[in-house]
Amino acid sequence: MLLLAAVSAAAGDIVLLLEDTPGMEPALRLIDVPTLKPGDRMAIMTFSRKTRLRQDFTDDRRKLVRAVRSPSYVRTRWPGLDRVPGARVYAALGEAARLLPSGGTIVLLFGSEDHSGAAAPASLGARLYAVAVAKSYPVDPELRNVQTPPTMRGPTPPVSTLADPLPVATFEALKPLVRATGGEAISGRWSLPKLVAEGRP
Q1: How many degrees, rounded to 5, is the angle at CA 63 between CA 26 and CA 21?
Q2: For residue 16, what are the CA distances in angstroms to 10, 80, 127?
């Protein structure tokens, strides 16, 4: 279900498609929203069970940063509470592609396996960059008895996390689609400004 009605898209437009299930907060915080060049526009979509359009196509970086930093992404700070077992990655890709009827670029950031039973799209009509990450969850220090050694310097104690494995099956299923669109499949360090620059026709 989309929250906004998308404006008419043009070739070269970019859709940033972000999984917003629990555990994605660390990856979302690392997103560096680029300053767009004249003529560039970006839309922000999030997904878990449903896909939502958070920001329609715009070249206003402040609006894009606000959409990416939305606190509604954070469902819970602790593991085991309100965790979504998966996300509908393939359905979200279909929704993003519908925003780009004349072509463009989709940058997908996800950390869940798609267990919906759906198949990966056969085609998109847009260049796809698929970035797979491992979701991580802060651990309650009381549960793990995490303590800062008194001899350790610095104001910040060690941070302990629980981590889900990389969504390998979904990542592998997307690789043929990525290759067919001329995009890239990434399971490591990535740069949104770099991908946006590469995605321009």
Answers
A1: 30
A2: 15, 28, 12
Please list the residues that pair with 46 across neighbouring strands: 18, 52
User: What is the reported pTM?
Assistant: 0.82
Burial class of residue 129 in the structure, from the number of CB atoms within 10 Å of its CB (0-12 exposed, 13-18 middle, 19+ buried): buried
pLDDT tens by residue, 65-117: 999 987 555 544 444 444 445 699 999 999 999 999 989 999 999 999 999 99
C-alpha distances (whole Å) from 24 to each of 74, 83, 137 are 8, 11, 8
At 25 the pLDDT is 87
| Amino acid occupying residue 57 | F
